[in-house]
């Protein structure tokens, strides 16, 4: 498949809608093991992102991804703003001057995005963060099995955070009290992949 500017635009608009629809759920997950603002952070950030996309109308995938990343970094105060921001900025660098991405190109972009998140946040799979959903999803993308399989892997990764103790972020202060709750960032990451599969 080819991923056009229009496809990427729809992906981001879908993410904005999903984060708004799941705002209360994401805040509740974050209230259980953090400070209760993850849904509000992402809804605010992606609302700003969609406003900017409509105003600036970026002309290439790289320009779109860069605008998303810059806007998230400047408009989301929490840990997730710089982390998701870096994801999109690093993906933008790999997109280069391509006018549309093919399957391998999309996989490389998202792989670079994940590497950026891990460079910044130093989280590994198993630390109960967004990386637990993103990592299995991005790995399977490299095998060209389709976006629905990647979304499925992200959902499994999200669910796998439930029994984990957190080693990064606010939830790491809770020790064993974090057990039994899905990580909010892993949950938002799985929504992002749901949108990639069905924008
Ligand atoms: P804050 O914790 O600053 O309020 P958010 O609530 O928006 O920020 O985001 C919390 C989410 O960020 C967590 O659920 C986790 O998935 C993710 N996160 C926090 N720290 C890290 C990190 N070092 N690496 C990867 N993800 C992280
Ligand atoms: Mg929070
Ligand atoms: Mg916060």
TrEMBL record:
One of its GO terms (molecular function) is kinase activity. Residues 6-198 form the DhaL domain. Keywords: Kinase, Transferase. It holds the Pfam family Dak2. InterPro entries: DhaK_L_YcgS, DhaL_dom, DhaL_dom_sf, Dihydroxyacetone_Kinase. PANTHER family: TRIOKINASE/FMN CYCLASE, TRIOKINASE_FMN CYCLASE. This is Dihydroxyacetone kinase subunit L. The gene is dhaL.
């Amino acid at each position: 498949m080819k991923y056009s500017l229009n496809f990427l635009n729809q992906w981001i608009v879908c993410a904005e809608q999903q984060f708004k629809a799941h705002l209360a759920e994401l805040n509740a997950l974050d209230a259980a093991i953090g400070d209760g603002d993850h849904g509000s952070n992402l809804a605010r950030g992606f609302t700003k992102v969609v406003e900017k996309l409509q105003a600036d109308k970026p002309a290439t995938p790289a320009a779109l991804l860069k605008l998303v990343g810059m806007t998230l970094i400047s408009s989301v105060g929490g840990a997730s703003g710089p982390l998701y921001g870096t994801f999109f900025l690093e993906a933008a660098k790999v997109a280069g001057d391509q006018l549309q991405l093919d399957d391998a190109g999309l996989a490389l972009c998202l792989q670079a995005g994940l590497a950026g998140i891990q460079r910044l946040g130093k989280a590994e799979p198993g630390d109960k963060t967004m990386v637990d959903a993103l990592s299995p999803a991005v790995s399977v993308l490299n095998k060209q099995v389709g976006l629905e399989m990647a979304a499925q892997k992200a959902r499994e990764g999200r669910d796998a955070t439930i029994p984990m103790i957190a080693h990064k972020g606010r939830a790491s202060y809770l020790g064993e009290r974090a057990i039994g709750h899905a990580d909010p960032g892993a949950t938002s990451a799985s929504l992002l992949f749901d949108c990639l599969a069905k924008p």
